[in-house]
Amino acid sequence: MHARHVFVSSVFLFVLALCIVALLPPQGSPSPRSFFQPRQPPAINSKGSTEHGRAGGSGCDYSDGRWVRDAAAGTTAYKEDCPFLDPGFRCMRNGRRDMSFRGWRWQPHRCNLPKFNATEMLERSRNGRIVFAGDSIGRNQWESMVCMLAVAAPAGGVREQSGKPISRHKGYLSMVFAEYNLSVEYYRAPMIVRIDRVPAANDGVRGAVRLDVLPRHADRWAGADVLVLNTGHWWNPHKTVKAGNYFMVGNHLNKTMGIREAFRLSLQTVKAWELSSSRFFRSYFFFRSYSPSHYINGTWDTGGSCADQREPLTKDNHFGEEHSWINEMIAETTEGIKNHGRKAQFLNITSMTELRPDGHPSRHREPGTPPDAPEDCSHWCLPGVPDVWNQVLYAHLLSMGYSTRRKDR
């Protein structure tokens, strides 16, 4: 009986081993994936493509990552002597002593961010127009892009189309890259919709934010090969009702409308405008997310400061997202445009930017600024954080197959 029991046990173990081998996947095959295991998007190489083709909007979440120290990051493509920088963004010239804010590289968690190639971007944009429209933070990004591209342009080959000085803060500016017949333009539109000034009245109305009308120069945005919009910093009580600027739809001035409802209506106007024009059918449309400010121990007008910030924050100590409702509305608007067949992308830079309180001019402001003026913890030193925004913009354009030379784009 004992020998028979051993024989049966051996046969059972042999059969069990065969079953286990049969259930294993062939060598080199991927392991079965649990329903609860998140799918990792394919890695993106330095050219912005994956093993399975170009990276689409779901190929890599460039907004999810961390700042890592990188000595090479401090060797920026351009310097503060770039002639197209606003004096207020030249922090080292304005007295800042440390350059630590330049020694960081943004690293997405699940892929690599393609390195910005100025020559390739210029070639892809030949005979085209790249337009930035928005507030002064948008101007920050526009100046960054102009300087990033200028390093690959022939000396003296970049000029302002109408001869306007770069220090001009209102209206619009258009930098022309002559060899490429490319213009990179900036239009001041802090609320994206039109702001009409009215004579001071007894009821305290100084201006009307016309939620259903775009700025007068918006017709110049149309037909751009790449259009990058931004807004947000003026959508607060200080810039609206407390300054005597009330919301208007049609001919009706509404002094009780809330800021969120007004913002929603303004984005509806942008969406309707973009979808109604055939000139945008081939355009690459981007709406950038909110760029956080970093005032500590007060607001911009009550002594708030960011002067002592020397390195990025971590996820454990970053600031609260008081701007989340703005991003949600912008993302929804952009997705609505995309669902109508447009090449539209929500340019999400908020999380990476929120971690960089060290990148602001702070007290190192434009020459001539009064010593007791508020610190600037909203705009950015250049070279600096907006360069990474443009690197992300470039990565999205690569993944979308951007090229002005393609007739079927």
UniProtKB/TrEMBL annotation:
It holds the Pfam family PMR5N. GO terms for molecular function: xylan O-acetyltransferase activity. GO terms for cellular component: Golgi membrane. Residues 59-112 form the Trichome birefringence-like N-terminal domain. Its main location: Golgi. The keyword Transferase applies. Residues 355-367 have a biased composition (Basic and acidic residues). It is a single-pass type II membrane protein. InterPro entries: TBL (IPR029962), TBL_C (IPR026057), TBL_N (IPR025846). It is found in: Golgi apparatus membrane. Residues 1-22 form the signal peptide. Keywords: Golgi apparatus, Membrane, Signal, Signal-anchor, Transferase, Transmembrane, Transmembrane helix. Residues 113-395 form the Trichome birefringence-like C-terminal domain. It comes from the Eukaryota. Belongs to the PC-esterase family. TBL subfamily. This is Uncharacterized protein. It comes from Eragrostis curvula.
